[in-house]
Structures are given as structure tokens and as C-alpha cells.
Amino acid sequence: MNNSVTNTARLLGAGLRALLVLTVVTGILYPLAITGVAQGLFPGRANGSEIKADGKVVGSSLIGQAYTLPLKKGQETPEPDLKWFQGRPQNGLGTNSVNTRYKLILSGATNRSGDNADLIRWVKDAKAAVIEDNSTSDYKVKPSDVPADAVTSSGSGLDPDISPAYADLQVHRIAEKNGLPVAQVQKLVHEHTDGRILGFLGEPTVNVLELNIALKELVAKS
Q1: Order of strands, edge to edge, in the sheet holding 205-207?
Q2: How far apart are the first and last CA of the chain?
Q3: Has residue 192 got a pLDDT over 50?
């Protein structure tokens, strides 16, 4: 009986010691080591790829934002603030969307097939809105000018980038709304266009948040 109690106590003690050691190693030392390496090698990415403006964090280069006007009384869906470059449509394009205002609580695709009637209607409505919003007194957008990313959301609904073609499409409207020369706004887009990864992977992109920060600075100087 005494031997059985002694063996049990010895096993429990060994188990508790192993638990303590593993807790310290995996729960404290390992996370601290990984955090230290991450902060030392790539602090920007480790901290969420934060973007700062005027000394304040205004967002992440990995997560899109909505640029909309304040909601009016009784209004459920905000209207885009057309003095800023707009990102891809928020997921769903309609009232049944997954992520209606870039809220991080929800993220995901619409899961609708290409022949879904609602999706087709949303895309057509989005295309009409893009044409109307970006046509100015001296520049008319043609249906063939509208790129796919201007009327479709990404798989996550939080894509921070748009294509150079969609950014170019917005140049005349941005220039008119902010009282800037078209050439100056076009130059801004070109300066914030990122090429393919390693020169051949993916497609060129424009980060909307970074572009709008540069636009704000340009407007302030003009």
C-alpha cells in the first residue's frame, strides 16, 4: 500500500514538473523569442503593417477601408465620399452583403455563382454607379473602361488594393472634386503603383489607403 502511494506521488510530482517546464518553455520563453525575432527582423509586419499619417496610426496596409459620407437620418447604406479614391466594392454589393462597411467582425465571400441573378444585378448596378460617379464635365467613362475589380468584391471583402486601371478611372473625378490638375493626380497614382512581385508574380496594384494619404497631403499643399 505504501509503495503504491509512493509511486503515485512520484508520478504526480513528475507530471507537475513536466507541466511546469512545458508551460514556461512553450507559454513564455518560445512566444518571447518569436516576438523578439519578429520585432528585430520585420517590426512593421509584426505590428500589423500599420500606416501612419500626421504621427497617428490610420490603418493597415493589409486591410481596406471605406471612404463614405456620414449616414443621414434613416439612411442604412452610406454613400461614397467622391473626393477620395474608392476601393473595391464591399462584399456583396447589396443589402445582403457579408461585410457592409469594412467591419472586421465579418469577412468572407458572397459564395454566389457567376450566373446568380442577385450577383448579376449587383454587378450591373455597381457598373452603372462607377460610370456615373467617375464621369465629369470633360471626361465620360465608357462601359468598356470599367475594370472587373471596380464592380466585384474580393474573397475576403477587405482587399486594400485596386488595379491601376481602376485608380486611373477615378483620376478625373478626384481632380475635379479637389480642384487639382488631372496630370498631378495621375502622377500620384503612378507613384503609388506597385509592380508584380519579383517582376512576374501577380498583377500591379495600388494601395488605396496609402494613395488617399498622399492625396490629402497634395490637397493641403495646393
Answers
A1: 161-162, 205-207, 193-194
A2: 90
A3: yes
